[in-house]
Design brief:
Distance between the termini: 65 Å
Helix content: 55-70%
Strand content: under 5%
Largest sheet: 3 strands, antiparallel
Radius of gyration: 23 Å
Strand order of the largest sheet: 1-2-3
Oligomer: single chain
Length: 298
Amino acid sequence: MKWQRALKDYELYLRIERGLAQNSIDNYILDVKKLMIFLEENNVAVSPIDIKQETIQQFIYELAKIINARSQSRIISGLRSFFNYLVFEDYRKTNPLELIESPKIGRKLPDTLSEVEIDRLINAIDLSKPEGERNRAILETLYGCGLRVSELVNLKLSDLFFDEGFIKVTGKGDKERFVPIVNTTKKYINTYLNHIRNHINIQTGYEDTLFLNRRGKQLSRAMIFTIIKKLAEDIGLNKNVSPHTFRHSFATHLLQNNADLRSIQLMLGHESITTTEIYVHLDKSHLTKVIETYHPRK
């Protein structure tokens, strides 16, 4: 089996059987392509079926010279997944990465914003421009519902169940969940719908897309990043702010106000509670409050 054939089959597996989003698929494929480039540059003629641990170890050794431990760990994980697929399909007997350990990395705590900082960012939006109302609705939705940026740009009109107080969100692996939506967020979305969106010349195929650009098409992920980065610059916010920062802030503020982890997990769409638990480590004041409230020797 040649590398290109294996890569094509693997991509189909990731899309059809694992149901991954295109961004995730692209990252997995890129990890394998980096190994392929290394083999080509070093004139190593070996197939994905025959490649040995020693060759991959040399590739990782070279990687370590140019990228950090976290990036190394992610590539190793991606390659491990690729060779697990080959084992699963009986192309190989063993995974050559079985005995290769990922570098030790600390768990990176996410950046968050205070409620005041979020208010400052939203108040910096220029509402005199048509996109102003849209951008306010976008930031309120990111923060009010804790969405990933991909979930936000793919949100549909048909996903809005305002009378019931929920929106339907399609997350990783096309898994759907219902997230409560507060009145403030509903108000700003309705303002955008009634005063801005209904005046846009919507292109065919985007009639059900909630947030649109000026050309009547779906907003890109990159555009959401640009909007937020620009607002942060405008108010002189010295933090690394992204759409995900609003999601982290959503979870952290819920925890600070005594929401339980299980509820936060469901709203964020985390498969494992351990992913949600990072917010406990982030907010140490919450731990202190728990001890002071519930411990018998408080």
